[in-house]
Amino acid sequence: MALIILQQILTMALYMICGYMLYKTGKITDAGSKSIANLLPWVIIPSTLINSFLTEYSAEKMRELLISFGMAALTLLIAMVIGFLLFRNSGIECFAASFSNAGFIGIPLVQATVGSEGVFYLSGVLILLNLLQWTYGIWQLTRGKKDSSEKTPKTTVKSVLFSPIVICAIVGILIFVTGSGTKLPPVLNTFIGGLAQVNAPVAMIVLGIYLARTKISELFTTRRLYLVSSVRLLLIPAVTLLVFAVLPVPYMIKITMLIAGAAPVGANVAVYAQLYDADYGYACQTVTQSTLFSILTLPAVIWVAEKIMAGA
What we know:
By secondary structure, this protein is mostly helical. It is built from 15 helices and no strands. It has a single domain, classed as Na+/H+ antiporter like fold (Up-down Bundle).
C-alpha cells in the first residue's frame, strides 16, 4: 500500500504542477481559481461522499460505519490535544496542527488505496472535522481578542451545519441505512460516479494554484513553519499509529483514519484566518509547506503503519 500511496502522491504532484503552471502563465486568474475551487466543496466532494454510500446495506457494514465514527473522533482528539499542548500560544498553529486536509488530499488517497469503501469510513472524519473547525478552531483563532464574542456570526453557523459536505454525508448515510444505495437510477449513478472520479485532479490543480500564489522563499526561511509541518506530518501520525496499533479494529478502518490523520494542514485554516482577522498569509504558508513535505512523509508513514498494524 505504501507504494500505491507514493505513486498516487506523485500523480497528485503532477496535477499540482499543472495548476501551478496554469496560474503562472496567466491561463487561470485569481477569479478563475476561486471558481474552480468552489467546485470541490459544493459539487465534487459531496458527490464523492454520496458515491461511497451507494452500496448494499448489511449489519456488518453498519457496525463498521459506527466504529469508523468512533475512530474519527479519536483521530481528531489526538491531533487537537497535541496541537494544544505544543501551540497553545498560537491560534493559527494550533488550528493547523489539529486539522488535516482530509477532504482535498485524504479522499483522493483513500480512494486510490482503499477504494470507495475507505471513503465510506472517512465520512465521520469529514463531518466531525467541519463541526470542530467551526467550534474549537474558531475559538483558537479568536481567544484573547476583545471582540471575540462578536466573531461567530449566524451565517458562519449556517454555513457549517448546512454545508454541502455535511449535508451530503448525512444524506449518504440515510441512503445506505434505508437500503437505497443499490436502487438509484443508472443515470444518477453515472452522474455521481463521474463527479467523484475528478476529485483528485481538481483538488490538486487548486492546490497547485495556491502554491503559485505563495512566495516560495518564505516557505523555507520561516523556522516556525518547519515545526508546524513536523508536528502535523510526523508527530501526530506517529502518536495516532501507536494508539491504533493496540486497538482491535479492522485494519482497513485504521489505515483509512491514519491517512486522514497524516494528511497535511487543511486549507480551512487559511479560510478561517481570513474570516476572523488572523494572519492569513502565515496560515496559507502552513498549508503550502506541509502539502509539499507530505509528498515524502505520507508514503513513509503508511509504510511504517503497514509493518506495525498489518500483523496487529
